[in-house]
Amino acid sequence: MFNFTGLALRLFPHVDPGVIRWLAWGLFAAAIVGLSSLWKLSPAIHIRHLGLAVLTGLFVSPHLHYHELTLLLLPILGFAIILVEAGVLRPEKSVYLPVAFSILLLLGDISPARFVIPYLVMTFLVVGLWFPGKLLFTSRKMA
To answer: What's the predicted TM-score (pTM) here?
Structure first.
């Protein structure tokens, strides 16, 4: 699984899985409260809020199959919208972004880095949605 539970089980194989499951459920509950608080404090819900909700939901979900990573399409499309609105990416080029992420996840699935790529993609999307100026390539205009 490419969520907190799977990550914790891989990083700490000697810890009782029951303890990790309890931690995962606690993290799931905390994420619901945290996202609800963020949405309540926000004057409007934007694509980055929805992307964060999907990414958080995927990471803290109690159970996650690999095919459920298709839900990453929403934050990927949100990232594309942010890049287009910032003038970094032309709309006709933005259609390649979901394809690029899909190829990355596909190649990651058949590589030795299988258990790292989805976490890197999720982290990249959080940064891309919430701090796009922190990414090196968003600091300059692209064609």
So the answer is: 0.79
